[in-house]
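FW: tagging you since you asked about this chain on Friday. Here's the raw sequence from the shared folder, copied in full. Didn't touch anything.
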Amino acid sequence: IILMQNIHYSLIEDKINRKISYEELKEEVDEREKEIDLKQTDDVTDFYSQICFEEQDYMENYTKKQLDLIADYYKISKRKKRKHILIEDIVAFENNMENEEIVSQRKLMWFYIEQIKCDNYLSKFLILE
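HL: got it, structure written out here
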């Protein structure tokens, strides 16, 4: 037991000299592997669900013109693309970890634009669209 500035702790080493058979070890590894696989499957399912949700959100709540502005901000080509293809490109861009900073910046700026549009005084000075 060590006393250090009103903190008490003790270390007890538990020595178990039990022989583990190959079968027990293999069973333990298999169980852990199943747990990892289930977690990864859940993570992948959550990721694809999130992507589907984002695509649906863009489809229902954004016009093609608004999507064109977002694509321009990200420098995504929008040439001859229908709305659903443009949405797929935007969602893919936004879910790429390398683009996290620019996506955050874009969302913040769009938030500011909406706030200015709602302000009676400042909305007079903002001309978009």
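FW: The longest strand covers residues 2-4.
HL: agreed, and The chain has a mean pLDDT of 84.
FW: great, closing this out.
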